[in-house]
TrEMBL record:
NCBIfam families: GSH_gloB. It comes from Smittium simulii. This is hydroxyacylglutathione hydrolase. It catalyses: an S-(2-hydroxyacyl)glutathione + H2O = a 2-hydroxy carboxylate + glutathione + H(+). SUPFAM superfamilies: Metallo-hydrolase/oxidoreductase (SSF56281). Residues 11-160 form the Metallo-beta-lactamase domain. One of its GO terms (biological process) is methylglyoxal catabolic process to D-lactate via S-lactoyl-glutathione. Pathway: Secondary metabolite metabolism; methylglyoxal degradation; (R)-lactate from methylglyoxal: step 2/2.
Amino acid sequence: MKVVPVPVWQDNYAYLIVNEADRTIGVVDPVDPEKVINAAKPYNFPIEYILTTHHHGDHASGNERMKQLFPDLAVYGGDNRIPAMTHPLKDGDTFKTFGHTNSSISYYIEDNKDKVVFTGDTLFIAGCGRLFEGTPEQMHESLNIKLAALDKETKVYVGHEYTKSNIKFALHVDKDNLLLKQKAELYASTSITVPSTIQNELDINPFMRVHLPSLQKFTGQTDPIMVLGALRAMKDKF
């Protein structure tokens, strides 16, 4: 399995999932169909399915055009607001990671030794999504119970290239984090920062470090859910 990031729009990511053994391609959030199709052409494999991380237009609005171009496409999603959805996913079918929206799904794929997760706008590198429909409790469960439980070397592919701004906020709230400072230097010279790993996020992402006394002191909260909520409110205004 090969994952190919496809930068689209201003700061979004779509992805190709290239299965060379089966000679097929899946796509994640193909919001710019033409760009995604062009990225897939060198492989000369059919595009067989779409994985939609949530219903927002900057992730799902390409589904209908893709379905027009490839009528046999399977379109997966977790909410009836997903355009052109053919395969609604239920509890137990997938990895529901609510918080940003109540349609948010993280797709975990394991292929031999490769382990990857596509997190949409739930988990970003050094950050998390805004709480448009969900609650701090839901985001905490998504990040710190569900995603944190994955193998630490699982590669993380996020929905937006927000890394530099997230790092700036993370340094503000977790200023004594030496690993974070090292990663800040690395990311400063990189335009495409995916993939991360679960371990990397546990090391540098303040929203996955809410159990630490330093962040509890910074926010004035002791309950990890309250810490996350306080951090998210700060980030919204940062």
